[in-house]
Structure to design on (221 residues):
């Protein structure tokens, strides 16, 4: 899969590393020359200098063949232009964007953006999580339609899934395990993949199964 990421923010850099370790082709675009120069020394030629809200830059990055384009700059207007260009000019199959101001989410949805990452919403959830410390599932962002969430969960000590294979859990169709982070390793799960304590799990979950995945990864103690 080929993914273009616009914006070498912390999230953009982290996502680039994760996707590269999973074997995907990635281009990370940023218009900060010093940042691009520094990142190129670490990530190599996957880092590209340019304004990702410029059609010629996106074309040079290969937007016409990209499977997913992700806009992760800190400016909503820039992210909006990136999504508009990639949808209208390059017919990108999937666009994902960060939205800093929750009030702008309807605007992004109106132009057909497939998924929005609402930083304020995530922060509010994390604050709430400190009050309800028993929660182990953190919603990352809703997928198109609103009934499905991309979530992160941590496998706690004594959880029912520890030392069990994914294929033996009898997961319903509403729960899809996308990836597992184990220390510095990124695992693309298969049926024989075994959960271990402290695994960080990324999953796609329908809202009706949020409680179920919460119980799966929560400590039995």
């Amino acid at each position: 899969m080929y993914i273009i990421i616009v914006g070498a923010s912390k999230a953009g850099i982290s996502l680039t590393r994760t996707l590269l370790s999973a074997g995907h082709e990635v281009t990370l675009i940023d218009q900060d020359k010093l940042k691009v120069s520094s990142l190129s020394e670490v990530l190599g030629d996957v880092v590209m200098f340019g304004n990702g809200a410029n059609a010629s830059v996106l074309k040079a990055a290969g937007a016409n063949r990209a499977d997913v384009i992700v806009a992760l700059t800190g400016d909503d207007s820039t992210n909006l232009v990136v999504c508009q260009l990639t949808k209208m000019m390059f017919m990108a199959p999937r666009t994902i964007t960060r939205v800093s101001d929750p009030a702008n989410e309807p605007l992004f949805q109106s132009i057909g953006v497939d998924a929005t990452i609402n930083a304020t919403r995530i922060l509010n959830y994390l604050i709430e999580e400190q009050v309800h410390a028993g929660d182990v599932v953190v919603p990352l962002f809703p997928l198109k339609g609103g009934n499905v969430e991309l979530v992160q969960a941590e496998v706690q000590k004594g959880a029912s899934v520890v030392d069990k294979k994914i294929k033996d859990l009898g997961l319903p169709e509403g729960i899809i395990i996308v990836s597992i982070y184990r220390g510095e390793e990124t695992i693309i799960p298969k049926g024989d993949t075994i959960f271990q304590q402290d695994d960080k799990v990324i999953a796609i979950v329908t809202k009706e199964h949020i409680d179920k995945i919460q119980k799966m990864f929560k400590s039995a103690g």
The chain has two domains: 2-120, 128-217.
